[in-house]
Amino acid sequence: MTTPAAATYRSGFGPLLLLFLGIPLLLLSIIGTHTLGRFTEHTVRERQAALDHLLDQGVAQSSTSWYVLRRLNALSRLIRRHGADHPLVERAFQRLGTRWQLPCTVYVYRHRDLLRTFPAEAGHRSTFARLLHDLTLTGDDFIQAQRHHNQALLDLFGPGNRLELLLRFKGKLRRFTRGDTRGAYLIQEFPDGWGFFFILPRIPPFATRFPLVRPLTSPALGAAVPGEDFWLPPAGTDADRMRVALQRTIEEGRTQVQHDGMEWVFCQNREGIVWCAALPLPRSPIGGRAGLLVTLGYLLAGLCFALFTLSQTGSAWGHAVTDRLEALGIRFRLGLLFAMATILPLGIAILLGSIGLMDRRELLVAEAGRTGLARLSQVEQGYGARIEAFRQVAAALRESPFVKYLQLEPLARLVNRLIRANAIQRFEIRDPLGATLFTTDDREVHGVTQATDLFSRAAIRREAPNRLGRAADKVSAEEVMAEGFLSRDDVGLSAVLRQPKTVLTFRMGTSPALWYWDTYPELATGPCFLAVTHQLEWVYEGYIRQAFGVSLPPEAIPSRLAIEVGFESANFRTRPRLQGAGWLPLLHAAARSQETGRVLFRELDLPSGRFWVTLKPELTLGMFVFAELVPVASRLATLAPIRWRLLATSLLALLVAFLGATLISSFFMQPIADLGEGIAAIRQRDASFRIPRRRPDEFGLLADAFNNLLSELKELEYGRIVQESLLPADPPSPPGWGIACHRIPATDLAGDYHDVFALGDGRWALIMGDVTGHGISAALAMAMAKATVDYQSLTGWTVPSQVMDQLNRLFYRELKPRQKFMTMTYVVLDPESGEFLAENAGHPYPLIYRAQTRTVGELPLPSMPLGARKIRKAAPQIGRLDPGDALLLYSDGMVECPDPQGNPFTYPRFYALFERLMRERRPLPDALAAMEAALRAHQGPGPFPDDVTLLLLRRDPASPAA
Known about the structure:
The chain is an alpha+beta fold.
């Protein structure tokens, strides 16, 4: 019989733990809410960077310069490797026209001698037979060669492609216009003696090029020429979706958009050509997962606060949770609280520090882009010093005595020296009538001499009319028309007439030119008009060579690059020259920057590491793309002190936490562990175990108390031995009957009592009793009952009535003041007839199994426990057990034993178990062992909360009837 439970008080640990869990979860969720956008932005940036790299590749591969140069370079490499007559070369040439839509003429040279042509019947052989030789001539020989080739080159390529310009364009793909068509040519000469002159009369349009190169890049690329209604969408989409996505980017003023489950990036060039890259949006982006975690954090925090509130208001739900938390071990509680008080705040600090580092990195990226663009803009405009130098040279020439006094021979030497030094390109002086006194122009080659004639006369008439003399009154109709034309503001040359001694930039021929002119009104004789000209392209190239011509070791990477890629000429060479492979991503981005005219920022993996690259197209001539390269590692090195501080702080905090854990372990955890081992020793009834006394504090006193208790276990062990000797372990049984008993004490000394013995008249007595409580007091009460029952043989009391009356008086007098009672069932059996007389005192009703019906039933014997009242009322019952029938006496510890969730074994379950075992006709010891196994499986590990005693009587099936 169980003792009434002591009052249970809640320590408050459960609600405080809920509050302690909820607050950090709420803080983490709030931090996650503010940083969730960062995760999403980071994911979007990564996807957009991947799309941008794809788009860079697509734009470059389909651009005119890249498309043509790649195929022509492949053919020249094949010829240099196998020779001009190899069959592979012929097939490669045929593929240029059939596969790549690049019909062309190729002149192949060996040591500057024409070796053969593709096709074999190519025309203009006389022009190209010694073209590479003529490009190496100088002086008058070069002038004669230029005159010889001038008309042929003019017929082939149009103006602006005379021999001296072909020399400057060597190694570059040069665009030309002839009539309504645009073509290109490329001159190549290599150190091994091979030379090539490629002529492409026309370039395939973009709508032809892009479908040919997309299989070489990625199906995620698409392109369109809306003006021609040409649409080639990326794989997995269609033209209509591409149109809608493009329209959205135009309306929103962005290059990137999400549309119809796809991530799109667009770019467009000046000609209206559109490129795009599109990939499906990921189903579970990092931002989405982070959002789920943040939402889960809010829900868990809300749950903790709700359970805390419920526990404070007395709700059963709240107490159910807090009671389970209260049941946690002390060691676990201390460890959990310590972790929450140290590691969790440290984790939050590390998270915030990491987010701060991410912010700093983004600032560094933005700063790299801004400073890179500022530096590139400064570099782009830095050629102004070259223009000023040209002005100073021109002004010095005006004041030169060689000019003023027409000392032509030394003047020629001076001018030629300046031309070779790339200080000027052309120079001439004229008399008051506009006649040429000295010029570097060849009237048979240069096409602007007639325009200069007209301009010089108008300029002299305007700025130095005193030099005209009588000619001032003689003006031809041609001069009147020319002066009127040059003086018109809508033409733009009126400003030129008004600005002598100034460097002016305007287009003369096919490219911008620098022009300086002046007159000599102060002279009476000699020159009257001077003009000095320079190609702005040549000035700019000279400036680029100076600014980017630094020689670097092979493994070094410059901080700035100039990439030769323009609309009129390109070769994708870099200044300074880069060595080795792995630069394609940079060249792809440069091609896109040139095509779109936009500044780009990329993070690229290059041969020497990762770089932040700012690319800006040069706008002065459109010949270069500038790139500013910043090593990512060097910039991120500025974050190293912050990282080290964060790491050092984290390590120091962990060290402090470790020391705190060690201190807590020394002061609390170890003594608690010692006490736990002591409790385990008590459960195992190990009386030899002792808890070490580590300190003379409360834990030391508690250790002493445990040790005293453990020392008393030995005495309890002796008491248990004495008690077991009083109770029959293997009771006797009359012939034709089987009797078995089984006892499981909750402590060393139990309060359950059972007995089986023969009476003097041939009958047998079976007794089952249960004293309230456990331990010594219950064992003493049980011993009193045993002594009283044994005393009946001396007194001759009738059984069971007088015996139970005596026990009732004894318990009422001696044990009721101590709230001790005893339940009992007393059965007197006549083994011959099978009849029995049973009397009960508050004990669970006996169970009877009827073999004939194979069922179990109770023997109802309602009554009060012994000692509860001064005078008890007896209510004996008579019954009979037939062959195969069984009678089971048991204590309430069997049916009231709880499982880990507190659910009892229950009477119906016990009845069903007893019925099944009896139907199976198990031997009585096996049946009782099966009952114990079922109870232990229900209760789980650990001791039983109450004593369990079973007494089973069964009549053999072969017993004769009475």
